[in-house]
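Task: encode each sequence below as structure tokens.

Item 1
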Amino acid sequence: MKLIKILTIGQILLGTLGFSQEIKFNADRKGLESNVQKIEVLNFGTFHMGETSDENKTEFDENDKENQKAVHKIAAMLAKFKPTVILVETRPEYDEKLQALYKEYVKNPNMKFKNPNEVELLAYELGRLSGTKRIYGIDHKMSYNYKIAGEINNEIDKEMLYKYYQNPIPFHTNLKVDRDNLSLLNQLKFSNHDLYLDFLITVNADMLTHAGTKKGFEGADEAAKYYQRNLRMYSNLNRVKLTKEDRVFILMGASHTAFFRDFISRSPKYKMVNTFDYLK
């Protein structure tokens, strides 16, 4: 009988690196990065500018002319990335309509939308300025019960969870910002800062691991659903046919941006560019 040798990931890496190579583990990350050419991605988080089913909504009048001008100024900044592909938070089954409206907008940027959202205000304008030909939706809808802690007899970490959700700011002191008094540009800078993106993963998912019955994992299971939704959205990104020459702009609600930041940072296929190189 022929024996099949199964190598562990560790064995593969050791065999690839070779024992003769000396690695400086205190070197910066760049020194250890792959030389493989990756697809550049500008992963941009925003709040929902039109109607949304999200529990938390930022006050923003999407029909106000000055607000629309402010969004278009930001679109002009981001257009310097020159994306060849734009991905947005709509479901793939909506792509035909999404693309038809986009083509119509490119021909007539003065066209009116009844209640424009971030796709129509920001993504369409950015694409028009960049000459982008392709736009797709990568959203995947899944519900999860973020209120689960209040619906069960929490025997894991009830006191900590209660303190946190009463006021999370003391646990994230650098996030103490009066967002209502920020310009739109500074609001979006704030929304794309690593500290805020970390907070969004914590508050939307990770804190639920502090909730559960004596022998149950109710909170963790709900948090897993949010991770699953974002992983499925990331899988939708991977369904888009791309080449090494493509440059991808992704526009989503910032909590999804936070998860994608983590996924892309480890990806052998994609390379995330610095949002703040363009948002200035």
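Item 2
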Amino acid sequence: MTSTEQQPFLSVRDLKVHFSTEDGIVKAVDGLSFDLAKGQTLGIVGESGSGKSVTNLTILGLHDRHRTAIDGEILLDGTDLLTSSERQLEKLRGNKMAMIFQDALASLSPYHTVGTQISEVFRKHTGASKRESRARAIEMLRRVGIPQPETRVDEYPHQFSGGMRQRAMIAMALVCDPELLIADEPTTALDVTVQAQIMDLLKDLQQEFGTAIVFITHDLGVIADIADDVLVMYGGRCVERGTKREVLSTPQHPYTLGLLSSMPSLEGSVDVPLNPIPGSPPSLLNPPSGCRFHPRCAFAEKVPNGLCSTERPALDVVDGRGSACHLPLAQREEFFADFAGSRHH
């Protein structure tokens, strides 16, 4: 997003993902665009139900095409994923692109050893022998920091700790050296020490392999640690995007400000109150008209003629920086001006 000299390795354009249900159409993603270059990390942040995971499952082609209406364009190194056949996608999954899921215990088969599961991925995509695949599995377990990989390769997922299972999932995702890695809240269920180790591991592996990473999370603290660029989603739409520094230090959208205001700060006074966002995320079966955030927005009343409730704000992006809000940017900056200072006093 921030690089003008590089062609994006992953390019998503006006993506719409709608599901048919008994209750109606769920507009899970409703017009999303972003770019990602090799060796860069894009953090996608938002509350549960904002469309983060749906976006990335769509990139991998993991939706039931008979019940899902998908429109737009997803280009991976020039290949249009939305027009690719299932056979073409199978060749790409695990080989060119891979995913680390949130719950490693649920994602790993309890009936097969960890080594078998990793080596099978390698065999499928490379045609390697069983011996070569086993050696590769041991090598990957060692690379992700699992002790005694020659022994642990023959153990089952339930014999691994939560942190070790997540490392095994990362080993499986990286066994074929994919160029795109999607990490769907991979540290959510881990304690802070293990979480920090996993984050450091991903950064080290990215530096080694030059992998492009899409990192999904609801935690802005994690975003601050790993992302280069940030995309903030709300109600299936992007409401703000920019570099990590831009988004976290000078938010331009009221929703981003709300997320930051509800986070405890490690600096300044402990007496600074947290300001959670009132209300709940919108139903994507019957989302609010206009700006989807307007029922929860403290600034909607400052926009004349009720525009926030009637008209969808455009996402104006200049040099990779932009936000979707009807309130003029100068006024937003004025209203948000005391935010940074208040977090340190």
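Check on item 2: Residues 250-342 form one domain. The mean pLDDT is 88.
End of task.
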